[in-house]
Amino acid sequence: MGFLPRKHQRHSRGKQPGKICTMKHPFDLQQLQCFVAVADTLHFGLAAQRLHMTQSPLSRQVALLEDRLAVKLLIRENRVVSLTPAGKFLLDEARVILHRANEIATNTQLASRGEQGTIVIGFISTAAYELIPRLVQQHRERYPGVNFIFKELLIEQQLHMLSEAALGVALVRPPVDPVRFESHLLMKDHWALAMPAGHPLSTLPRIPLSRLDGIPMIAWSPNSRYFNLILDRLYQAHGVSPQNIVSMSQITAMLGMVRRGVGVAVLPYAVESHAVDGIVIRPLQFARKWTHEAALQTILVWRRDEPDAVIRRFVDSVPQYLATT
């Protein structure tokens, strides 16, 4: 058996060179719209009026639809129009398709304005107590088509994922790279001492920082550089050397240690609103000149020149939400 020439081998495999495979759709939306109008009114003239068109192109669209589907949809006898069984079936399906097409068009327009879509938010644990619920609630009330996905992560993880577009926005502590990111101050918090109920210091309304000297402490992990930088300067300025028992990076784990009496912990005061039984939280007191420098900032961060309209709409709206609370 001989072999085909090379050019015939290529052509015998199917597609002709230079041709694109396309699938012909069985109908278009205009044909469905014309059919539904006729099926609803059972009158070509009334259907044409409803669609603000003349009767001739309306009849042509219905005829094209029947031709495309190779079925009879309407029976026309003595100026009386009725539906065939196939027409009755198509009518329900056509209404669904047209309704869905309108939804898609509306949602596409909303998405282009940043009013429809999903935002992936990275956050630090303290932002989950009051800040995130407040911002999300207000944004959802204004733009119900926007959904949120939340990821509690370390600051370094958030910034890395933000730069890779794996997050839409991040709620972190400063500083951030101003070349890659834009930011907005969300809130300032202050330091507090978490201690077991019945601890000798728990009777005080405010805890002088000097009282932490030599006390067993659940310290922040070395990964929590922002917290450690501020606390180290505060301890040094006030001559305080806590006795660090263990270091941790998650507030829930630190509170668990406090509750068991392992030690006390210096935490953002925001945790006070969600303190668990068996733990007392009191604000820390230190020299007035340190009040501003010791404040804990939470900032909203997003990529410079962010192309996603949903994210841009959110970050543009946040200052308004903060101003109303």
TrEMBL record:
The keyword Transcription applies. Belongs to the LysR transcriptional regulatory family. It comes from the Bacteria. GO terms for cellular component: protein-DNA complex. Gene3D superfamilies: Periplasmic binding protein-like II (3.40.190.10), Winged helix-like DNA-binding domain superfamily/Winged helix DNA-binding domain (1.10.10.10). It comes from Candidimonas nitroreducens. One of its GO terms (molecular function) is DNA-binding transcription factor activity. Residues 27-84 form the HTH lysR-type domain. InterPro entries: LysR_HTH_N, LysR_subst-bd, WH-like_DNA-bd_sf, WH_DNA-bd_sf. Keywords: DNA-binding, Transcription, Transcription regulation. PANTHER family: HCA OPERON TRANSCRIPTIONAL ACTIVATOR HCAR (PTHR30346:SF0), TRANSCRIPTIONAL DUAL REGULATOR HCAR-RELATED (PTHR30346). This is LysR family transcriptional regulator. Transmembrane segments: none annotated.
